[in-house]
Design brief:
The complex is a heterodimer of chains A (about 425) and B (about 400). Chain A is built from 18 helices and 14 strands. Chain A has about 425 residues and is an alpha/beta fold. Chain A folds into 3 domains: about 180 residues, Rossmann fold (3-Layer(aba) Sandwich), CATH 3.40.50.1980; about 120 residues, Nitrogenase molybdenum iron protein domain (Rossmann fold, 3-Layer(aba) Sandwich); about 110 residues, Nitrogenase molybdenum iron protein domain (Rossmann fold, 3-Layer(aba) Sandwich), CATH 3.40.50. In chain A, the strands form 3 sheets. A 6-stranded mixed β-sheet of chain A has the order 1-12-11-10-13-14. A 4-stranded parallel β-sheet of chain A has the order 3-2-4-5, sandwiched between helices. With about 400 residues, chain B is α/β, with parallel strands linked by helices. Chain B folds into 3 domains: about 120 residues, 3-Layer(aba) Sandwich (Rossmann fold), CATH 3.40.50; about 110 residues, Rossmann fold (3-Layer(aba) Sandwich); about 130 residues, Rossmann fold, CATH 3.40.50. Helices cover about 45% and strands about 15% of the residues of chain B. In chain B, helix 8 links the parallel strand 6 and strand 7. In chain B, helix 1 packs parallel to helix 7, helix 7 runs parallel beside helix 10 and helix 8 crosses helix 17. Chain B is globular, with a radius of gyration of 23 Å. The chains are: A alpha/beta (about 425), B alpha/beta (about 400). Chains A and B meet through helix 2, helix 3, strand 3, helix 5 and helix 6 of A and strand 1, helix 2, strand 3, helix 3 and helix 4 of B. Strand 3 of chain A pairs antiparallel with strand 1 of chain B.
Chain lengths: ~425, ~400
């Protein structure tokens, strides 16, 4: 495999107009991305009363059940994941009868409180009207039955499955609830625990309580009473559709507060949040902000000039890359499935100094050949550290960021960057000697 | 009875995939959504099939489906050929591709001029049946596609046909069988259909002196080889001491070579030593909970284990097949009509010796003695390659479980 050939097929950041224009490193992928069915599974696992009923082929249902037995908050063999397996007859004549039969069994056996009816690729091709089936089942059994569509051919990875599952919860939410001035909801926490974050501790110290945390650990009751919150915090953009819909239907405002790396942006998010909650956080925020900026100033000299390849991390891709560029680092290749547009402030900030290649995620085999061409110092994301080290590249870890939010993200990121940069310099020195 | 609470039976497509992935110098290219491939990697890992630059996916977009655009497939074929130089690329359709009816055979036909690798289309979408059908079709495909007509027979050699990756501890079973055949006849293995064979080995499938068929699914391949090359076949698995002896005697007759006396003496000694089990089985028969075995697994394992327990006088009260029994002689083997029927039955079992998969064992009452002998595994893993169920070592191991069971009586 030739690294130059691989790079030749890619577009650079300034050439991309739409996410569809982001090309894969190769046409043959391994292992490829996860599908939205997996995202739906992750989201439903975090809702303690929810049943996942998958409609799909033997393969899709087998792999989903197997994954839930191993984890994702489903716990064990007898768990909350069930399926209706489609055969040739169902594909030809529709799955309605089989689904209704299965649903009746489900209700008789476990009396579910909430059921997510999750479709898969084949059903979306055959066009079974699962939405209307869900409505009928909802009416017949008086149980919330929420359809989630997880066809992979419309998406690039599993995140839309998380997004669509949490967005599907709107019909369960109650209207007309009195707003609790000290309550917030957390939307979009897909990894880690919000309860371990700086933001959680800061807010709870000021008497704020957490209502719904979707996904990431909630209950049917918390979802039903979510409109009583004063404000929603959106900690990942996949929570944005739900937050916008809640604002439209219940008037609940939201604050975008992703895992930002830039202290200015973190400060702005905190201030916006404090405004809604009528809290005075000035002293704490100033102290944290100043500590971060001092740390950044001290780190710049060590980080400036570092070349890197960006993989998939827990942070917001373009904001994080813009932050890295502001530290004097050079992005050579960015792996992402999203593109916010050329007018996006972070895209512009990156393009002001550099014009990296852009490619899709989850195809690490051909990356080995790209390393030889680009010769980066650092790699961000999931890769084998030993394999990288053999090529003179230091891995920047992000596993400790899942349960962080606020200024602690900047602090952890900069600390890790300094460690990785020192390792990269050592690797260079070893090569020279 | 449409609800599936645990793991559904793997489909024909899954059976095809794990069988094709066993061919060493070939690549499997899935034409379909990437998520299925990604999900499958963990499953194949449990089976001991580690796709290392041997499994790829094209992924699919909505545009590809609507417009019938096969550009991704064409590019992926070219790329794999150029970058990995496999002898063969199996182009396998996904369920979606099967539903929309993309002509992957046509694509392979016109692409073959452009690439060095041989392209073999496999149009199995996963709707025709369960894994048993899939591996049967894959065995036939591998045999008919690769075997070379001009083959010289290697004296005193054998093929093993039907070594499926979905048979728990199959690698250990293969090891035991090869050891036995080496000790008995100093025979050499020519090829194994279904596990760890190269395309070169598959090409010379016709060169063996005898074909040893482990699974009913491999019978069509054995018949094809008999018709094409005149190779005789023996359809049997060496479960139990007596079964092992009979298996060796059948092979001895075909090879016209006697079984090594030392091995026969070893077997005779083991058979004598195990005679006591019959006595215990008879002695405990009048107890409140009469000893009995319950078997859950694939057809040939059920047949083999039944003979094994007959050898020690332990009655088999129930045999549940893990797959469809269509076309098989299976009067006393049951394929539960629904998952619920199977669950209800297993939950009612008490004080039985149960051999089966992890989910079935989980469902049985704790008064049962349980031995894991089949897939699927969920929490457990398959690492050891020296703990077979077949042959002398296999029977030794199963008798340990019988001992534990009798000690509860």
């Amino acid at each position: 495999m030739n690294g130059q050939d691989i790079l030749f097929r890619l577009k650079r950041l300034n050439e991309i107009q739409d996410a569809k224009e982001i090309r894969q490193l190769t046409a043959a992928l391994f292992p490829g991305s996860h599908c939205p069915l997996m995202g739906a599974m992750m989201a439903i696992g975090g809702i303690e009363d929810a049943i996942m009923l998958v409609l799909g082929t033997d393969e899709c249902t087998y792999y989903t059940k197997k994954a839930t037995i191993g984890g994702f908050s489903f716990h064990g063999i007898d768990n909350r994941c069930f399926s209706v397996v489609l055969n040739q007859h169902d594909v030809t004549f529709g799955c309605k009868n089989k689904l209704y039969h299965a649903f009746d069994e489900l209700v008789k056996e476990i009396s579910p409180k909430l059921v997510f009816l999750v479709t898969t690729c084949v059903m979306e091709v055959t066009g079974d009207d699962v939405d209307s089936m869900a409505m009928e089942l909802n009416d017949k059994y008086q149980i919330p039955v929420l359809p989630v569509h997880t066809e992979h051919f419309k998406t690039e990875n599993h995140l839309p499955g998380v997004r669509d599952t949490i967005s599907a919860c709107i019909p369960v939410m109650k209207t007309g609830l009195p707003v609790q001035p000290n309550r917030i909801n957390v939307i979009g926490q897909r990894l880690g625990s919000f309860r371990e974050t700086e933001t959680f501790h800061l807010l709870t110290q000021h008497g704020i309580e957490i209502g719904m945390m979707l996904p990431g650990g909630t209950s049917l009751e918390a979802i039903q009473t979510a409109p009583a919150a004063k404000v929603n915090i959106v900690v990942h953009e996949l929570g944005l559709p739900l937050a916008m819909k809640m604002q439209e239907l219940f008037g609940t405002p939201y604050v975008m507060f992703e895992k930002y790396a830039s202290p200015e942006r973190i400060l702005a998010s905190y201030q916006e949040l404090a405004g809604y909650l009528q809290l005075d956080l000035t002293t704490e925020l100033e102290a944290k902000y100043n500590a971060c900026t001092e740390q950044i100033t001290a780190a710049k000299a060590e980080l400036s000039g570092m070349k890197y390849i960006y993989g998939n991390t827990a942070l917001a891709c373009y904001e994080y890359n813009a932050f890295l560029v502001s530290l004097g680092m050079e992005p050579q290749l960015i792996q992402t499935n999203e593109f916010p547009g050329q007018d996006n402030e972070f895209v512009q900030a990156i393009l002001e100094k550099y014009n990296p290649y852009v490619t899709k995620t989850a195809n690490i085999t051909p990356l080995q050949y790209v390393y030889d061409e680009l010769k980066p110092n650092l790699y961000f994301g999931h890769e084998y550290a030993t394999r990288l080290r053999a090529k003179g590249i230091a891995l920047v870890h992000d596993s400790n960021l899942s349960s962080r939010l606020g200024f602690e993200v900047t602090e952890a990121v900069v600390t890790e960057l300094r460690r990785a940069a020192a390792e990269a310099k050592e690797l260079i020195a070893r090569r020279v000697s | 009875m449409s609800l599936c609470r645990y793991l559904p039976t793997p489909s024909d497509r899954m059976g095809v995939l794990w069988t094709l992935l066993s061919v060493k110098d070939a690549v499997v290219l899935e034409y379909g959504p990437a998520g299925t491939t990604h999900f499958s990697v963990g499953f194949f890992g449990k089976l001991g099939v580690e796709p290392n630059q041997t499994l790829f996916t094209t992924h699919l977009s909505e545009d590809d489906i609507i417009m019938g655009d096969v550009t991704r497939l064409e590019e992926a074929i070219r790329e794999i050929d150029k970058n990995y130089h496999p002898k063969v690329i199996f182009v396998v359709s996904s369920a979606v591709i099967s539903v929309i009816g993309t002509d992957i055979k046509g694509v392979c036909t016109y692409m073959k001029e452009e690439v060095n690798a041989r392209l073999i289309p496999v149009d199995t979408g996963g709707f025709k049946g369960d894994y048993s059908l899939g591996i049967k079709e894959a065995y036939s495909l591998l045999t008919r596609s690769f075997v070379t007509k001009e083959t010289e027979v290697r004296p005193n050699s054998y093929n093993i046909l039907g070594a499926s990756g979905y048979s728990y501890r199959m690698k250990a079973d293969l090891w035991e069988m090869k050891e036995l055949l080496s000790e008995a006849f100093q025979s050499e293995c020519n090829a194994v259909l279904g596990m760890d064979s190269s395309t070169e080995q598959l090409e010379r499938l016709g060169a063996a002196s005898v074909n040893l068929v482990l699974k009913a699914e491999a019978l069509p391949a054995a018949i094809y080889l008999q018709e094409t090359f005149g190779t005789p076949y023996i359809y049997d698995i060496p479960y139990g001491y007596t079964g092992t002896k009979q298996w060796l005697e059948q092979i001895s007759a075909v090879l016209s070579t006697p079984v090594a006396p030392a091995l026969m003496q070893k077997l005779q000694l083991r058979m004598m030593q195990s005679a006591g089990y019959k006595m215990y089985a008879a002695m405990y028969a009048d107890r409140e909970h009469a000893p009995n075995a319950v078997l859950i697994g694939d057809y040939d394992q059920l047949r083999g284990f039944s003979r094994l327990f007959a050898e020690i006088g332990l009655p088999v009260s129930l045999k549940f097949a893990a797959h469809s029994l269509a076309g098989l002689e299976a009067d006393d083997i049951v394929k539960p009509k629904t998952e619920k029927e199977k669950i209800d039955y297993l939950k009612e079992l008490t004080y039985s010796l149960v051999l089966g998969d992890e989910i079935s064992l989980y469902l049985c009452d704790s008064s049962c003695e349980k031995l894991l002998t089949a897939f699927p595994l969920v929490h457990q893993s398959q690492i050891a390659e020296h703990l077979p169920f077949v042959g002398i070592r296999g029977m030794d191991y199963i008798l340990e479980a019988v001992d534990r069971y009798f000690s509860r009586m």
